[in-house]
Structures are given as C-alpha cells and as structure tokens.
Design goal:
124 residues, mainly alpha, 434 Repressor (Amino-terminal Domain), 2 domains, globular
C-alpha cells in the first residue's frame, strides 16, 4: 500500500529545518550556536547544499526533542527520492514550493487538492 509521502517530490531535510526554525523564531546563527556547530555548516544544510550526517542528526534530535534517527530518516528518504525522481528539484525550487504552500495554507495542513494545485503551478 503506497504511503502519502510517496507522491511528494524530494524535499531536502534542510528545508524542513528552515521551516522549524522559522516556526519557533530562531535564526540559523542562533541554532548553530546552540548546536555547537559552525554557522556556515548549518546554513549549507538549510540551503540543501549539505546532507544531514549522524553528528548533526544527534544534535538536532537533542535540540528538537526527537531522535537522531528522525533526521537521518529524512535524509535517507530525500536521497532515495532524489535518486529515483525523473527530475530532482533544486533547493531554490524546493524553497519556492515551500513558500507557495505556506501562502496557500497560512500554516494549516494543505488539502490534497491544494497540494496538487501548487505542484501544477511549479510544473510538477
């Protein structure tokens, strides 16, 4: 039986981290300080230029009250989807879709119809 995320395009975990930080009002620089990591390294992750490794996954898990496996699973799902996607989205395209979703839903869960409309808007 297919899972609902099977139809989603590959979304880098950094995009999700960006959303989480915005939701709690924490800048990437402040989070980097809290995690004890370099600002540039966290920014590269948020921008989708670096993957989540085991070390940062453990730190993010502690900071957000999740497990490190949660973060490594997000990375694994992204990597798998990217390897099987006909055309993978760039971080800029992912960001544009994230903005469209946020604007369309105003922080609420999107309906399937809203998601399809946003994907269509971005040629997916």
């Amino acid at each position: 039986m297919p899972h609902p995320i099977d139809d989603l395009p590959p979304i880098h975990p950094g995009s999700l981290l960006r959303d989480d930080l915005e939701a709690i009002g924490v800048t990437p620089a402040k989070m980097a300080d809290r995690l004890g990591t370099m600002h540039g390294a966290l920014t590269a992750l948020i921008d989708g230029k670096q993957p989540i490794n085991d070390e940062i996954a453990a730190r993010l898990g502690k900071a957000f009250g999740t497990t490190s496996q949660y973060w490594t699973n997000l990375q694994a799902i992204y990597d798998e989807k990217r390897s099987t996607a006909p055309t993978a989205l760039s971080p800029e395209e992912q960001a544009a879709i994230t903005v469209s979703m946020a604007e369309a839903t105003r922080g609420e869960f999107a309906t399937d119809e809203e998601v399809r409309a946003i994907w269509a808007k971005h040629g997916l």
